[in-house]
Write a structure and sequence with these properties.
With about 220 residues, the chain is of the alpha+beta class. Helices cover about 25% and strands about 20% of the residues.
Length: about 220
């Protein structure tokens, strides 16, 4: 199984984008807003991947507009049934190793309107990140060049924890992260399901994994 990566943690002050009360029109939208059709596709893909259980390798899905798919293959009308705006199509298994490098090799044909990536990650509570960054005397463990021992880096007040450190942390939790973007659209949609007692109630919001959404958007660059 490919290594689990650590992505941005959700902002606890942001509202739950799954709540219908927070569906706002495009335009001057908040950073956590999700396109409803994209969010539905992300949820569909995450649910599909979840049927295989945990401890799965990262999986990529192309999103094709259902209307375009039916125009090209009308015989699929019965199969697609109540399909949403986008139909997910599973892709070949991503190569093991560095996920960023794998994403950098991906390009899409014009008929692909978006994509969704599902992967398992390790998440840490904010308090755990703070403890990792502090030395025993309470001072910052960072070196003058902005890094600290063990590969932990500091950017301003933000601390980036390596996957190895997160995997060994006693407060770690495993989660399934599904993130999707649309060609030519800013932002994206994300869903985070923590493994364990709360895995029936996922977190929603485009602010869950902005770095991953940027990497997915880059797969549509010319």
């Amino acid at each position: 199984m490919a290594p689990k990566d650590v992505f941005d943690q959700p902002d606890p002050s942001s509202p739950d984008a799954a709540d219908p009360a927070y569906v706002v029109p495009p335009g001057n939208t908040p950073y956590w807003w999700e396109d409803p059709d994209l969010a539905a596709a992300v949820a569909e893909v995450e649910e599909f991947v979840g049927t295989a259980g945990w401890d799965s390798a990262p999986q990529m899905f192309a999103l094709v507009r259902t209307a375009d798919l039916l125009d090209a293959q009308p015989e699929l009308a019965t199969t697609l049934g109540d399909a949403g705006t986008f139909t997910p199509i599973a892709q070949e298994v991503l190569p093991p190793g560095n996920l960023s490098e794998a994403l950098s090799t991906i390009s899409w044909p014009d008929e692909v309107a978006g994509c969704v990536l599902v992967q398992e990650i390790v998440v840490l509570p904010p308090s755990a990140v703070q403890r990792v960054d502090e030395s025993p005397d309470g001072t910052s463990g960072g070196s003058p060049d902005g890094t600290s021992g063990g590969g932990t880096s500091r950017k301003g007040n933000d601390v980036e924890i390596t996957a190895e450190e997160a995997a060994a942390h006693p407060d770690r939790a495993e989660a399934r992260l599904a993130a999707g973007v649309l060609r030519g659209s800013k932002g994206g949609a994300a869903l985070l399901r923590v493994r364990g007692k709360d895995d029936a109630t996922p977190l929603r919001g485009a602010d869950l994994a902005p770095n991953l959404l940027d990497a997915l958007q880059a797969t549509f660059d010319d």
